[in-house]
Amino acid sequence: MHFSDFKSTSITLVKSEFDYDRLKLLFLEFATSIDFDLNYKNFLQELASVSEVYAPPSGIAFILSHHNNTVGCVGILKGSNLTAQVKRLYVRNIFRNNEYARQLLSVATDWAVQMGMRRIRFTASDIMYSAVRIFESNGFQQMAPAPYSIDSEPAGPVFERTLISSSEYLKRVAS
Q1: In Å, what is the CA distance from 70 to each residue of 73, 85, 123?
Q2: What is the tally of structural domains in the chain?
Q3: 38, 60, 67, 118: most buried by Cβ count inside 10 Å?
C-alpha cells in the first residue's frame, strides 16, 4: 500500500448507523491510543450518544478512508460564540501520516466556515505532540489557559484559528 497516494482517499460524512458504529470504534481506538481515562469528561456517555452528539445541527463527523480501509476520523461541534470545536481527530497507527490528519483538519475547517463559524478550536492533551504540530502548521495558535474551578480538572492547551474577521462577520450579518 502506498501511503503517498492521496488520490485514493475519500472522506465520508457520518450519517448512517453503520458509519456511527465505525466512528465509535475509531473513538475507542483514539482513547486507548493515548492511554485515555474512559471516565474523563463523560467520554463513555459521549460514546453511547455519538449519533446524537455528532449529528446536525449541533455537530458533524467525518471518516477518512484509503483504498477502502478506514484510516481515521474527526468530529466537530458547534460551540458558543460562533466557535467550532474539533473533537477526536484521529488517524490509525498503521496510517499514521500527517497528510491524513491535515485532510481531516481541512474538512473540519471547511465545515466550520460553511456553518458561519468565526473561530475553530482544538483542546490538546499534553501528550498529543504530533497533533499540536499539525494544528500549529495550519494556522492555529495556542491561547492562554482557560480558568477552571477547583472541582474540575484543568483542560490541556487550547489552540484556536480565526476563520473570519469581525468586520467580515458584520458584513455577512448585515447582508
Answers
A1: 9, 23, 24
A2: 1
A3: 60
How many Å apart are CA 37 and CA 75, to the nearest integer? 19
User: Which residue type does 146 have?
Assistant: A
pTM: 0.81
pLDDT digits (tens, 9 = 90+) for 128-160: 667 777 888 888 888 876 555 444 445 677 889
pLDDT in tens, 49-72: 999 999 998 899 999 999 889 999
Distance CA 16, CA 62 (A): 12
Q: Residue 16: give its domain's CATH number.
A: 3.40.630.30
| Contact of 19 with 51, CB cutoff 8 Å | no
Kindly list the distances between the CA atom of residue 113 and the CA atoms of 11, 12, 43, 82, in Å, as whole numbers in the listed order: 17, 18, 27, 10
83-91 vs 59-66, strand pairing mode: unpaired
120 belongs to a structural domain: yes
